[in-house]
Amino acid sequence: MATADVPTADIPTTDVPTTDVPTADIPTTDVPTTDVPTACPLPHVSEQPAGAVRRGPLSAAAWREYGYVFTSFPLAIAGFVLAVTLFSLGAGLAVTVVGFPVLVALLAGARGLGAGERGRASGLLGLRTKEPAPVPAGGIKGRLADVAGWKAVLFQFVMFPWRIASFVVTLTLLLTGWVVALLPLYAWVFPTFVGWPGYQLFDWTDGAGVRHAYYLESFWQIGAASLVGIGLVLLTPVVVRALNGVDRAAVRGLLAG
């Protein structure tokens, strides 16, 4: 059987031209950003929150407040003696040339004490303050015009009586509160070793020879007294912080820049 070759025809192909689709550049604009202001404390003052003391009479913050009061007592005496001595001597000798260097020494000493006070306020009270303006130039005349130095001298005069009062109040509250609060722990000592029927509140004899005495003897009397003592213990940190508030204001107003 014969086979025949079937001719094949070449199918013409045409190239389809491709065109680049133009793309339009989308303009972009920079959106301006604005700084959002944030609330922050003043740069020269930052302070420990009041709630730190309210955590309890045994908190570290409360004992720092107590420590500030107790260390202020000897410093107040030293600062007052320095201020009174040098100011009196300098003012008395002001008619001569000798008085002016004494007053300059007073200002320098007051500035040094002021720097120490700012450091104590920072470490114990959490109060941050700026340093005062530098000592003016111009020799003795310029130093005598040192406003910051004179404010530091005024600080020693003003704070002396207040710090003595703060020391007395703080010590009284601490001792009274803890002694009375812990009364149930040692009330047995008085009838056992002292010969009293209980804790003696008062004992005196009037002009007619009548003796008046009162003792805390019963369980309820001792318990009630202990509750009063606990109240004083809890109140003491609040009172001490209020007392130190005067010191905070004085440091800001007289020793800070």
Distance between the termini: 123 Å
**Got a strand count?**
2
What percentage of amino acids are in beta strands?
5-15%
* Total helical segments: 8
In helices, the fraction of residues equals 55-70%
| Rounded Rg | 40 Å
- Poorly predicted residue ranges: 33-45
Strand order of the largest sheet: 1-2
Biggest pleated-sheet summary: 2 strands, antiparallel
How would you name the oligomeric state of the polypeptide chains in this document? single chain
- The class by helix and strand makeup works out as mainly alpha
Question: Could you please describe the fold and organization of this structure?
Answer:
The chain contains eight helices and two strands. By secondary structure, it is mainly alpha-helical. The chain has a two-stranded antiparallel ribbon. Helix 3 crosses helix 8 and helix 5 packs antiparallel against helix 8. The longest helix is centred in the last third of the chain and has 37 residues. About 5% of the residues have low confidence.
In short:
The protein is mainly α and 257 residues long.
Strand-helix topology:
Blueprint: H1 51-54, H2 60-92, H3 99-125, H4 139-144, H5 147-181, H6 183-186, H7 189-194, E1 199-205, E2 211-216, H8 219-255
Antiparallel strand pairs: 1-2
Helix pairs in contact: 2-3, 2-5, 2-8, 3-5, 3-8, 5-8
